[in-house]
Amino acid sequence: AIGKFIEENAYGLIREVYEKDNFVFDLSGGAVSSRKFAEASEKVRKTAKENSIIIGLLPSKRVNESVKFLFKREKKREHFNNTNEKELFTKTKEDYKKFPPLFRELCDFIVYVKGKNVDEAADEIINFLIKYLIDELKIK
C-alpha cells in the first residue's frame, strides 16, 4: 500500500506543489534516496533540481561523527525499540553513506548542523540565500 502511494501519489503531490511560487518544501532523506522506490526518488530529485534551491542538512562533514549523531537519534525512535543496537548502528551507517555524495550532487548548499542550535543553522541558511539572490540579480 505504501509503495503504491509513493509511486502514484507522492511524486504527483510534489510536482503539484512545485507549480506554486514562494514556498519551502521539507523533503526527508528517504524521499530523495529511497532504494526501495528508486524511480520515485529519482523523479523527486529531478523535479527539485529543476525547480528550486536545494539546501541539505547533514550532521557533520565527518562520516563517523555523522553516524554517531544519527544513531543516537535513531535509538530514541519508537519503531526501532526492538532492534538490536549493533544492527541499528550498522543500518544507520549503511543508510548514511549514500547521503554525502548524493547531497554534493543535488544540493546548492549544505548545512552541517552538529554543534549548532536552530538559530545558528537558520542564520547560515539565510546568509546563503541572501548571497544566492544577490548573485542571481547580478547575473540578470
Describe this structure as you would to a colleague:
By secondary structure, this protein is mainly α. It is 66% helix and 6% strand. It contains seven helices and two strands; from the N terminus they run αααβαααβα. A two-stranded parallel ribbon has the order 1-2. Helix 1 runs parallel beside helix 3 (38-51) and helix 4 (63-76) packs across helix 5. It is globular. The mean pLDDT is 85.
Throw out a few tags for this protein.
140 residues, mainly alpha, 7 helices
Shape: globular
Q: What's the total number of strands? A: 2
Supply Rg.
17 Å
What structural category do the secondary elements indicate? mainly alpha
Order of strands, widest sheet: 1-2
Mean pLDDT over the residues: 85
Helical proportion, percent range: 55-70%
Question: How would you name the oligomeric state of the polypeptide chains in this document?
Answer: single chain
- Beta content: 5-15%
Unreliably modeled segments: none
Straight-line distance between termini: 47 Å
Question: What is the N-to-C succession of helices and strands?
Answer: HHHEHHHEH
Number of helices: 7
Major sheet attributes: 2 strands, parallel
